[in-house]
Amino acid sequence: MDKIFSDKEYLALAVTEARKGANKTWQNPQVGAVIVKDGRVLATGYHHQFGQQHAEINALSHLVNMEQARGATMYVTLEPCCHTGKTPPCAKRLVDVGIRQVVIGQLDPNPIVSGKGVKLLQAGGVDVKLANFPMTINHAYNSFYQQQRPLITVKYAMSLDGKINKQTGKRTLLTGYTAWLDSQHLRAQQQAILVGEHTLLVDDPELTVRQEILLYPPIRIVVVHDVNLLSSQLMLFKGDAPVWILSQTPLKQSLPGQSKVFVNAEWTPQAIIALLTKKGIQSLLVEGGSHLQAEFISQQLIDQLVVYIAPKLLGGGGLPAVAGTPLPQLIDFKQFTVEQVGADLRVSSRREV
Ligand code: AOF
Ligand code: ZN
């Protein structure tokens, strides 16, 4: 029987499946799969959670019996894997059960798989079609392997005259509840959140996501001169998410909770990013303050910018959103959107489309 829907439509269905794993696959990609035979969708599946079976295997498990797989087409958002990781290789399983054709949304940027999954399928006699489907999922996963560093988002809230604070050394409440909720959601999508020492001491932030229950809450990272000078009463030490302290001085006493300390002579943005890359962290939210933000921006270590603008004027003095030295050349953003969040505005920009 002829196909009822196009490859694009079946892949769109596979993406819908993939999205069901949102916030649960952590450092693994969200993947969805659809099995089609004789114009009928026989089964769908997705990667539910980090460490669990892959989307392809999940879809196969929804068939009435494995005979149904013989001669069928599988639509899968990501190139099937060829390695034995936490689970056996999917490409081999697809060959073994007699899948005739695999239509792939995108190649896997992860070097342990990239291109090799396709080869394994072809060597097993499977017809492989690469659809190059425009992907709206796995933004951080793809970016991590392409740039070999985490996807970096800088976020701040400012007044209409570009200030984040009325005066240095004191917190000024600028944006409202809706913007706060929105920024909680932004945090929830990250694998790590970073603030500088000044923000840590002035704002005393908890840096957790309180609005959503997360399987993998973002790691809270702070850069400080001397970890030994931090009070154990800081809000940072409350909550369940892991804490990493990047200190210039080695630790002399014990720390509350499950905090980890990393020591380096100087924690430049490059040194921070090198550590996170080594640890496989795919996304980072830089949440302040204006000096740390400026350092990341001046090193061009920024992929996305989210700015909340409050309908307030602070007047002269105060702390600008981005301090430090000017850039040698302007940073151009390719994507630029504005949204009303309660009484405030959210302006988001991306360097890549
Ligand atoms: C997934 N889910 O549905 C597919 C993945 O650590 P492992 O063994 O689970 O392997 C993770 C890698 O497997 C991942 O980086 C990607 O390259 C490949 N495909 N992973 O978690 C899936 N198809
Ligand atoms: Zn797999």
Automatic annotation (TrEMBL):
<keyword id="KW-0479">Metal-binding</keyword>
<keyword id="KW-0862">Zinc</keyword>
<dbReference type="GO" id="GO:0008703">
    <property type="term" value="F:5-amino-6-(5-phosphoribosylamino)uracil reductase activity"/>
</dbReference>
<protein>
    <recommendedName>
        <fullName>Riboflavin biosynthesis protein RibD</fullName>
        <ecNumber>3.5.4.26</ecNumber>
        <ecNumber>1.1.1.193</ecNumber>
    </recommendedName>
</protein>
<dbReference type="InterPro" id="IPR002125">
    <property type="entry name" value="CMP_dCMP_dom"/>
</dbReference>
<dbReference type="GO" id="GO:0008835">
    <property type="term" value="F:diaminohydroxyphosphoribosylaminopyrimidine deaminase activity"/>
</dbReference>
<keyword id="KW-0521">NADP</keyword>
<keyword id="KW-0560">Oxidoreductase</keyword>
<comment type="similarity">
    <text>In the C-terminal section; belongs to the HTP reductase family.</text>
</comment>
<comment type="pathway">
    <text>Cofactor biosynthesis; riboflavin biosynthesis; 5-amino-6-(D-ribitylamino)uracil from GTP: step 3/4.</text>
</comment>
<keyword id="KW-0378">Hydrolase</keyword>
<dbReference type="InterPro" id="IPR004794">
    <property type="entry name" value="Eubact_RibD"/>
</dbReference>
<dbReference type="InterPro" id="IPR024072">
    <property type="entry name" value="DHFR-like_dom_sf"/>
</dbReference>
<dbReference type="Pfam" id="PF00383">
    <property type="entry name" value="dCMP_cyt_deam_1"/>
</dbReference>
<dbReference type="Pfam" id="PF01872">
    <property type="entry name" value="RibD_C"/>
</dbReference>
<dbReference type="InterPro" id="IPR050765">
    <property type="entry name" value="Riboflavin_Biosynth_HTPR"/>
</dbReference>
<comment type="pathway">
    <text>Cofactor biosynthesis; riboflavin biosynthesis; 5-amino-6-(D-ribitylamino)uracil from GTP: step 2/4.</text>
</comment>
<feature type="domain" description="CMP/dCMP-type deaminase">
    <location>
        <begin position="5"/>
        <end position="128"/>
    </location>
</feature>
<comment type="similarity">
    <text>In the N-terminal section; belongs to the cytidine and deoxycytidylate deaminase family.</text>
</comment>
<dbReference type="InterPro" id="IPR016193">
    <property type="entry name" value="Cytidine_deaminase-like"/>
</dbReference>
<keyword id="KW-0511">Multifunctional enzyme</keyword>
<dbReference type="InterPro" id="IPR016192">
    <property type="entry name" value="APOBEC/CMP_deaminase_Zn-bd"/>
</dbReference>
<keyword id="KW-0686">Riboflavin biosynthesis</keyword>
<comment type="function">
    <text>Converts 2,5-diamino-6-(ribosylamino)-4(3h)-pyrimidinone 5'-phosphate into 5-amino-6-(ribosylamino)-2,4(1h,3h)-pyrimidinedione 5'-phosphate.</text>
</comment>
<dbReference type="InterPro" id="IPR002734">
    <property type="entry name" value="RibDG_C"/>
</dbReference>
